[in-house]
Amino acid sequence: MSKLRIFLADDHALIREGLKSLIEAEPDMSVVGETDNGRAAWREAKALRPDVVVMDISMPELNGAKATELLKRDCPETKVLALTIHNDQGYLHQLLKAGASGYVLKRAAPHELIRAIRAVAAGETYLDPTIVNDVVGSYVRKQSAREGQPQGELSEREAEVLRLIALGYSNKEIATRLDISVRTVETYKARLMEKLNFHSRAEIVRYALLQGWLEET
């Protein structure tokens, strides 16, 4: 099996070294390049065409959002995972609009970063759990205010299932975490998808962001 080819873009050498050690410890991953500024990230990744670019937001020459936008324009098949200290929905919205497939905070546990890399490499959307909680909470509040109808609202359990779906958990994993049956998870999933008119996990996250769920109230 060929390894996932990862490119690192972060202006702190110590962070890059830590990320490289973490990623190289995975048998199916390899770091194929790294840089400390956004412009080089765009140019070098365009030449190397890695599977995933782990992209910081605050970098010299080009910020992460602009570098992501240019890279996705030139190499749409390369996935971008934003890795940042910024727990800010404005940055999140900006990166997702630029074409990033995921957003992880630097304070996340190492296994969460590896999980995120695998998810975006597989074509999924990955958000840090903290961000997902904010996204779903914001949507539920706005949906209720907009519709004012009980049938348009998510129950507490439906919202929890939605959060776990957005995080990439399978129905079986969700059932285990919530201590319910897989069939019950499927029922909640079908119900919330119908209420929100969604058809995929990626749509749950991307639609939420791009349709303005993160706008300030």
Q: Secondary-structure map with pairings?
A:
Blueprint: E1 4-9, H1 13-24, E2 29-35, H2 38-48, E3 52-55, H3 64-74, E4 79-84, H4 89-98, E5 102-105, H5 110-121, E6 126-127, H6 129-147, H7 156-166, H8 171-178, H9 182-196, H10 201-210
Parallel strand pairs: 1-2, 1-3, 3-4, 4-5, 5-6
Helix pairs in contact: 2-3, 3-4, 6-7, 7-9, 8-9
Looking at the structure, the CATH topology of the largest domain is: Rossmann fold
Query: Judging by the overall fold, what is the CATH architecture of the largest domain?
Result: 3-Layer(aba) Sandwich
Q: Helical segment tally?
A: 10
Q: Please list the strands of the largest sheet in the order they lie side by side.
A: 2-1-3-4-5-6
Q: pLDDT under 50 segments (min length 5)?
A: 139-151, 211-217
Alpha-carbon Rg, integer = 18 Å
Derived structural class = alpha/beta
H/E series:
EHEHEHEHEHEHHHHH
Strand composition percent: 5-15%
* Largest sheet, strands/sense/barrel: 6 strands, parallel
